[in-house]
Every structure is written in structure tokens, then in C-alpha cells.
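QUALITY CONTROL LOG
STEP: pairwise intake check
CHECKER ROLE: data steward
CRITERIA: each record must contain a sequence immediately followed by its C-alpha cells, with no blank fields

ENTRY 1 OF 2
RESULT FIELD BELOW
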Amino acid sequence: MTLKEQFASIYSFALKQLGEGTGKLTRDQLDEVYEAWKREQTDFEESVADIQAGLDDAKAGRVSSIDDVDRRIRQRRGFPPAE
């Protein structure tokens, strides 16, 4: 994301978080909005990385059928086998 895109994203996020209001933010409000925006960006980036890791696993054949997963979870948790 370019610096210009980051500023636009922060501005848009701030408007959503604080509403239109007077357009004036205190230093504390600005810090709060920026920290919330950073958390949201980090969550998004982590989600993208997790999805990519899952796709890479699938391409490499590191997958399990739902039946295998169900069986292992039931065994681990002491649940009876599926009927």
C-alpha cells in the first residue's frame, strides 16, 4: 500500500470511527483512531497470510478429508464415533 493509500485509508477509517463531527480531533482521539486502524490492518494482513498458507498447503497436498478431521477431533475429545 502506498503512503497516499495509507493516509486515505486512515482518513476513511477515522470518519467511520468518529463520525463526521466537527472535523477536529484531539491528539488522544487521533492516537486512538490510528492504533485501531493499525490493528485492523494487521488483522487483514494476517488473514491474507493465513489464507495463502492454506492455499499453499492444498497445492502441496497437505490436506485432510472432513471425515478424517471429524474422526481425529472425536477421538481427541472423547466423543463417540459418527454414525
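ENTRY 2 OF 2
RESULT FIELD BELOW
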Amino acid sequence: MNEPDGQSEPDSETTVARQERLLIVDDTLANLKLLTRMLREQGYQVRGADGGAIALEAARSFQPDLILLDVNMPEMDGLEVCRRLKAADEGDPRHLSQCAGCGRGQAQGV
């Protein structure tokens, strides 16, 4: 719908999506930068983390709506990050972390 000044009103679905917070976790800096840039260009609030420990802190402070998580990382892999996020969220229904990642049959026990 056009406004009197000739500009169209933003779509309500677009407005909601653009307010969502995303946490991107990847130990490959090029991937982290690319995803962060692409998602910010789409209007999302994005934080990046290059490792598991940093991701756990960012998840607690940033309270993301969605976490895109690399499963294969050194020191603390993505599956361990998911386990710790799940354990930290038990009993608190207000915060639900979604973990997405690529692994080769590694998603057992998460």
C-alpha cells in the first residue's frame, strides 16, 4: 500500500524478520565474514563467533533467535556447544536456541 508521500509501507513479515538476531559460529574466518555480511545486508542483527567458548558467551549475552553453528571446530566442537546451550536453557522456556550445522553422521546425542 502506498503512503501519501509515495513510499510503500513495509511488509509486516519483512519487518519481523529484520528484527531477528542471528549468531553465526564458524572457525573459518572467511565463512564467518561472508555469512555475517550477507545476513546483515538482509537486515538481520548478526553477531559472529569463531569458536565454541565465544559462542556460549555470545549466546548468553546476545540472546539470538537462531544460531548457525559449524559442527567441525577445534577445541570445542559444535555438538558440544549445542549440548551446553541445551543444558543452560533447561527450565527456562523463554529462551530456545536453534542449532544448525553440517556434520557427517555426528549429530548423535544432541
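INTAKE CHECK: passed for both entries
DESCRIPTIVE NOTE, ENTRY 2: The radius of gyration is 16 Å.
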